[in-house]
Design brief:
- This protein is α+β, with helices and mostly antiparallel strands and 342 residues long.
- The protein folds into 2 domains: 225 residues, H-NOX domain (Alpha-Beta Complex), CATH 3.90.1520; 103 residues, Homeodomain-like (Arc Repressor Mutant, subunit A), CATH 1.10.10.
- Helices cover 54% and strands 10% of the residues.
Length: 342
């Protein structure tokens, strides 16, 4: 599946990038703010973030690191930072390395969907290929490929308890001036300007058993993985997402703004406006609708004054609330509340 502009990926990636930043002494909060992402996105593994925002955060942290081998060093730490993630548990319960690689491809979207993975066979060797997914208008840096290959190498070492020996590491980008870190991490020749980004190792490794694998546990974990996958990639319109966020802010007695709602959805205000326009609505229409529903609920179920209700709904005063209410229903809030009593 190819990535298209505006699609989503799990907030898990945001969490890992932020934890890496903290360990590296980089301001994670400042990095999130710089790309207009909220720390609340780290609260749940089933939340999703736009691919553009994830890549923007990655580049922000990379820039702040001043590390010429950022991708390699990030990839080195991902497995430890991701300890407890469902994919790690799932892979450890596969019967063989070959099966684990199949499951890794199947559930790649639970960690990040920036890449596609596949297996290429050539005689007595196999190549685990990592192909960057296409994101319209967002260039992928060399460090993405190096990080992905590094994560793959460490995962295979984990699954084989360090027994695997790689034959070659291939990269599509030009050879960096210093490849000392490549040699240290992959412990094999690193070749650049290659047709594919891939890791070469003996084909016999695919049949190696994974110690302590549990078939029933694997089945249970797959069921859970598929449930999480559905939660992350559930199809919702942008107007539904925006309306849900507006409703949450109103319940918290906060005034919803286009900028604030867009930030919560991890896109820019202009992007949100464009999405809503394509769905034949506007932010103001959604705000009006949510305010109207909340106002009717308050008038029916509470004894709050009209002034308090106006403040809770983010109006500048009772007069503005009265005007909006009359526009909605043709009567004033006082007349509506009076009618409820008869």
């Amino acid at each position: 599946m190819r990535r298209q502009h505006g699609q989503l990926t799990p907030s898990y990636f945001v969490d890992v990038v932020c934890r890496y930043a903290v360990e590296a002494g980089i301001d994670a909060t400042g990095s999130l703010e710089a790309v207009e992402l909220e720390a609340g996105l780290l609260a749940s593994p089933t939340l999703s973030v736009s691919v553009e925002k994830c890549l923007a955060l990655w580049h922000e942290v990379m820039t702040r690191s001043n590390d010429p081998n950022f991708g390699l060093h990030f990839g080195e730490k991902v497995n430890r930072l991701a300890t407890g993630h469902i994919i790690t548990s799932l892979l450890l319960n596969c019967t063989t390395i070959g099966e684990a690689l199949e499951k890794m491809t199947r559930y790649q979207s639970l960690s990040t969907d920036f890449f596609q993975t596949s297996l290429r066979r050539e005689g007595e060797y196999v190549f685990r290929v990592i192909e960057p997914a296409v994101v319209e208008g967002v260039p992928l840096h060399r460090h993405h490929a190096e990080a992905a290959l590094c994560v793959l190498a460490h995962t295979l070492r984990l699954l084989t308890r360090g027994r695997i020996q790689f034959v070659e590491a291939h990269f599509t980008h030009p050879r960096p001036t210093d490849i000392g870190e490549h040699q240290r991490i992959f412990a094999c020749p690193s070749l650049f300007d290659q047709p594919r980004t891939e890791l070469k190792f003996p084909r016999a490794v695919l049949a190696w058993p994974i110690p302590m694998a549990d078939a029933q546990m694997l089945a249970n974990l797959e069921h859970l993985a598929q449930s999480v996958e559905r939660s992350i990639y559930q199809v919702e319109s942008w107007s539904d997402r925006a309306a849900c966020r507006i409703e949450q802010l109103l319940q918290q007695h906060q005034a919803p703004t286009l900028k604030g709602v867009a930030a919560a959805l991890a896109i820019s205000p202009r992007q949100l406006q464009n999405h809503l326009r394509h769905e034949s609505t506007t932010f103001q229409i959604l705000l009006d609708k949510q305010r109207q529903e909340a106002a009717l609920s308050y008038l029916r179920e509470s004894t709050s004054t009209l002034y308090d209700i106006a403040c809770q709904l983010g109006f500048s005063g009772q007069s503005a609330f009265n005007h909006a209410f009359r526009r909605w229903l043709g009567i004033s809030p006082t007349e509506y509340r009076r009618a409820l009593r008869h």
